[in-house]
Design a protein that fits this description.
By secondary structure, the protein is α+β, with helices and mostly antiparallel strands. It has one domain. It has 2 helices and 6 strands, in the order E-H-E-E-E-E-H-E. Strands 1, 2, 3, 4, 5 and 6 form a 6-stranded mixed β-sheet that branches. It is globular and about 40 Å long. The N and C termini lie far apart (about 45 Å).
Length: about 110
């Protein structure tokens, strides 16, 4: 039996949390810069609970606890789009953070 760490989440787990009202917080770990036609840097994602209390770091695998890092803006935006976000805000300076919430569906009458 494997023990699950309470402060990390995998991609599949993040999808489930987002559906429950969690937000994805993009954190810039390394100031971004433009190299040729590509913006590079180092970004990570944290799941933040609806009450701002619970926080979980996105990892590649629960077995190895390796933080999922995004090295290009294109990779980060692609990931956010795959998660269901329709906009992407990217902090470009180290320490910057931006939260994203899934769009709500219109209520039908």
């Amino acid at each position: 039996m494997t023990e699950e760490a309470p402060n990390v989440v995998t991609e599949d787990g993040l999808r489930k949390l987002l559906a429950l009202g969690y937000r994805a917080e993009v954190v810039c770990k390394e100031t971004g810069g433009k190299r040729h036609n590509t913006w590079t840097g180092n970004w990570i994602i944290r799941a933040v609970g609806p009450d701002n209390g619970a926080e979980k770091l996105l990892v590649t695998s629960r077995a190895y606890f390796k933080v999922r890092e995004f090295k290009t803006v294109v990779g980060l935006v692609s990931f956010l789009s795959d998660m269901g976000f329709t906009t992407a805000h990217v902090p470009l300076e180290a320490g910057g953070r931006v939260q994203h919430q899934l769009p709500t569906l219109p209520v039908e009458d």
